[in-house]
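User: Please predict structures.

Assistant: First:
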Amino acid sequence: MDEKFIPKLRFNGFNENWNEDKFENIFDIKNGLNKGKDYFGKGIQILNYMDVNNYELNTENTIKGLVELNDEEIKRYSVKPNDLFFTRTSETSEEIGLTSAYVGKEIKCVFSGFLLRARPKMDVNSLFFAYYFRSPKQRNNIIKFSSITTRALISGGNLSKMKIKFPNIGEQNKITKLFLILNKKIELLEKKYQYYQDFKKYLMQQIFTQKLRFQDFTDDWVVTTLDKIAIKIGDGLHSTPDYVENSNYYFINGNNLLEGQIIINDNTKCIPPYEFEKYNNNLNKNTILISINGTIGNLAYYNDEKVILGKSAAYIKLNENIEKEYIYNYLKIGKIQHYFSSELTGTTIKNLSLKTLKNTPIIIPSYNEQKIIANMFKNIDLKIDLINNRLTNMKNFKKGLLQQMFI
């Protein structure tokens, strides 16, 4: 009895068994162009490794590379509409065999030696196969057919022997259209996310230089240093605490601080309650945490999490009349980041000293103006988080479809 090749998720009206065939029976495979560096930067367009690595589809507008070639080379290494491309080699197996289809106009264009070109022998939609080979199962197949010496490699010979499963052209086109719509939604959300990020940076620059102020506030801002507006600034434990397999108490370092949050994951060490009682530094909700060793300047709010700090994290316990959201955002501006960078010590692993942190220059308005500025940034951050959550959900939805709609 013939084996059934049917995906878990399918459009209504499509009931046929998917076809199975060797890749070489559907596509002609060719290695790309290798030229000396003097030939690049002028001439005709060339599809490069990162074009395929980053994009599931390419057009004449996405290809930025240029190379100077003769007519014979242009013909031999041509890029035509509906060609499919694979990344051929990389330092890791996770980045080989990534696919992109060229769906643009007929232009003079060639492809790089770090790529493989697959040109259809029959009526297929190459963009369908670009999505197909990025599905989890086919990513595993690509890696299985690859070889690793000094670099990971997928050869045309190995690729040609792969058995692939695919539907008729009508179903290919239907699936392709769905992923085009999803990608458009993802692209719009990414642009929206970047817009609000840029908008916030602009406001930070304008407000913290006092070029932009809220109405009715005219008092001069006070020039001070971070230690003058804090109850205490200190770092974490310089020794190793006792660990336990499971508990609700954690030992964190600078790499656990990200975008305002303390990140607890499977790699975060658990500690017993008595270690927390001994080393918690009596942090309160008006505390900001900052990474000071290795990764410098990552910030997080402390919100009564049951954590103790390691030596690569410091705490800034602010005075009651200081808005922590104001200071959090002020510490992110370019001037302060430059100050931190200029004062780092260490060679291999960089370190921000407590002395430098305490001496951080701060310009601060009245408490009421701090509150208004802090609330404004808080509202923008909520908007950014909302868009980012929608973006993450959309990407996860796409990932689920890649798993369910392909065999």
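Second:
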Amino acid sequence: MSGRAVKKMFVWAAIAGVAAAVIYYGMQDELTKVSKEGLLVASGRIEGTEVRPGSRMAGRVVEVLFEEGRQVEKGQALVRIESDQMKLGTMWAESELRKGMSQLAAGMKQLEMAAEQATLAQTQLELAQETVPLQIEGAEKAREAARANVEQAKAQMEYAKATFGRASTLEKSKVAPTEALDMAQAQFGVTRAMVDGAEKLVAQAEAALKGAKAGEKQIAMAAAQLRQARLQVEAGKHQCDAGEASVDSARAMVAIAKSAENDCEIRSPISGVAVARLVEPGEILSGSSPVAVIVDMDKLHLKVYIPSAEAGQVKLNDRVRVYPDAMPDKAFEAYVADVSQQAEFTPKNVETREQRTRLVFGVKLAFKDNADRQLKPGMPAEAVIRWKENVEWEHPTRLR
């Protein structure tokens, strides 16, 4: 055997020895870990639900009111933007509101006047309907009484005339004295005057009756005025309705414009930590542009992936202890909040190609408390999932 071949054999023997030593000591180190039924180790990174508040309107950033890495509260103003379009929209909406209010006021004034006229016309009509028939009835009675007086006066005049005729005949025959003739003549004159007076009263009664009957036209005119007034009332109501509709529409437009102005102040939808500041004063935002990234530090979780062979052992609400790499000796209480219902290949951020080709189930481990804010998104951590009760806890470094 040549020297070169011997030398080559020694090299291969040395390599094999080193490999055996590595395997041996690796197995020894692995055997120091405790394997327990009921405990499962998994690793991942701490995550949180990110919220990215943004503007619904385009505009220029005039002020940023938060600092990156600081706590923000729900409803806290984060960014103020300025938009000429919003200001013009508000001015136009307020102008339309003033126009609608003016139209409504005019309609109400017209309705008020029409209502007054209708009330007056109604009163006049009712008064005419009540008094005119009484006036006609009174005038008719007065006319009948005057006519009766005329008949009575005529009868008296005829009697006086006959008496005067007899007295004249007797006076001519020298049977009756002249004084009797004079008295008969005087009585005849009186009765004739009474007839004339009675006939004048009849004429006056006829005129009064005619005037009373003219009141019937007054009733018709009052009824026509009432109808006209009622039409004006209806017109006033329509104008008021139109004015109210205009006011309601304008108020809605003002509310929309004010809401758009409120959108100029972007507020945090949750309480949490602003982990990223995405805008600076002077920048122009388009609609829906995010201005910050906010994480709710009270609702963090660790996302891990369990091999499909072991996923069936894990169930919701199983207790978990998480050991962040930054605090390897401190355990944080957690629980199984969600187990994926569908297997997937290991995500690409897992280190080795062999691991990425394995089917796994995603498991969400929610932390019970982070009041002291020691846990932060992005921290790598290991978790011990206890899927069987009454099993003693072990540190992940002693489990395999």
